[in-house]
C-alpha cells in the first residue's frame, strides 16, 4: 500500500505522528474511563506507568490528558495526581466523547439513549422546518428524499437516510441545530444501519419519510411533527424488537 504521507516534509510528518499518538492515548484512556475501568473519584496511574503502558513520551501523554481534561473527564492537581471527575461533569455532547461512548456502552442502552434524544428534538425540528425552510434547504431535502426512493441497497439507503435527517435539521434555519446534526452524525449512521438491517426490507420506512417530506413541503407544521413522531415510533419498535 502506498504511503499517503509521502512527500510531506519531516517536520509536518513528525507533527502528524505526534498528533496521532496523543489522539490514540486519549481514545484508549477515555474509553477505559467510560467503560468503568477507572471509576469517578479514582486516581489514574502515575505518569511513568501510563507512559510505559502506551509507549509514549511524557509530552504525548500530557497532551492526551489535557484532551480528557477539556472534555470534563479528569482533573489534575499538584501533589494529588489525576482523578476521574464525577460522571455528571463529563461532556458527552462532544463529538469524540459521543463516539467513544457508543463503542463501549451496552448497545441497547446506547441505542435507546440516542433514540430518546431524537424523540425530544426531531419532531419539533420537522415542524420548525415547515416554517423556516428556504429554497436551498428544500432542494437539499428533496435530493435526499429522491436518493432514498432510488436506493438499491442498505449502504445507499443509509447514506440517503442520514442526509435526510441532517437536512431536516438544516431546514430549521437555526444555527444551533446544525452542529447538533454534525455531533450525532457518526452515531446516528450506526443506528440507521442497524434499523435498516432489522427491517423486513432495508427501505421499509420509506412511506414514513415521505410523509415527513410532504408535510415540510406543504408547510404543515402539525403534520410534519406527527409524521416525524410516527417515523421515530417505527425506529423505536425496531430497536426494542
**Distinct helical segment count:** 10
The CATH class of the largest domain is identified as Mainly Alpha
| Shape summary | elongated
| Total number of distinct structural domains | 2
Task: State the share of residues found in helices, binned by percent.
Answer: over 70%
Beta-strand portion reads under 5%
Average pLDDT value? 89
Instruction: Provide the CATH superfamily of the largest domain.
Output: GntR ligand-binding domain-like
Question: Could you state the order of secondary-structure elements as H and E?
Answer: HHHEEHHHHHHH
- Low-pLDDT sequence parts: 1-18
Based on helices, strands and strand pairing, what is the structural class? mainly alpha
Write up what this structure looks like.
The protein is mainly alpha-helical. The chain has 2 domains: 10-89, Orthogonal Bundle (Arc Repressor Mutant, subunit A), CATH 1.10.10.10; 106-240, GntR ligand-binding domain-like (Four Helix Bundle (Hemerythrin (Met), subunit A), Up-down Bundle), CATH 1.20.120. The protein has helices at 10-35, 47-54, 58-70, 95-104, 107-132, 135-150, 154-171, 177-198, 206-217, 221-240, and strands spanning 74-77, 81-84. Strand 1 (74-77) and strand 2 (81-84) form a beta hairpin. The longest helix is centred in the N-terminal third of the chain and has 26 residues, at 10-35.
Amino acid at each position: 500500500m502506498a504511503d499517503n504521507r509521502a512527500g510531506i516534509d519531516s517536520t509536518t510528518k513528525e507533527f502528524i505522528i505526534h498528533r496521532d499518538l496523543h489522539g490514540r492515548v486519549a481514545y484508549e484512556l477515555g474509553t477505559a474511563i467510560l467503560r468503568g475501568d477507572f471509576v469517578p473519584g479514582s486516581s489514574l496511574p502515575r505518569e511513568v506507568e501510563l507512559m510505559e503502558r502506551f509507549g509514549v513520551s511524557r509530552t504525548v501523554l500530557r497532551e492526551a490528558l489535557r484532551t480528557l481534561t477539556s472534555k470534563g473527564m479528569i482533573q489534575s492537581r499538584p501533589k494529588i495526581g489525576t482523578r476521574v471527575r464525577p460522571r455528571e461533569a463529563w461532556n458527552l455532547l462532544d463529538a469524540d466523547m459521543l463516539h467513544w461512548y457508543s463503542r463501549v456502552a451496552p448497545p441497547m442502552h446506547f441505542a435507546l439513549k440516542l433514540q430518546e434524544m431524537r424523540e425530544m428534538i426531531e419532531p419539533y425540528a420537522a415542524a420548525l422546518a415547515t416554517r423556516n425552510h428556504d429554497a436551498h434547504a428544500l432542494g437539499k431535502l428533496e435530493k435526499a428524499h429522491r436518493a432514498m426512493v432510488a436506493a438499491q441497497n442498505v449502504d445507499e439507503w443509509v447514506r440517503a437516510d442520514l442526509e435526510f435527517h441532517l437536512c431536516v435539521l438544516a431546514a430549521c434555519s437555526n444555527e444551533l441545530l446544525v452542529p447538533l446534526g454534525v455531533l450525532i452524525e457518526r452515531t446516528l449512521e450506526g443506528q440507521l444501519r442497524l434499523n435498516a438491517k432489522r427491517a423486513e426490507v432495508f427501505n421499509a420506512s420509506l412511506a414514513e419519510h415521505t410523509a415527513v417530506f410532504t408535510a415540510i413541503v406543504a408547510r404543515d407544521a402539525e403534520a410534519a411533527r406527527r409524521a416525524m413522531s410516527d417515523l421515530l415510533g417505527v425506529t423505536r419498535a425496531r430497536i426494542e424488537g
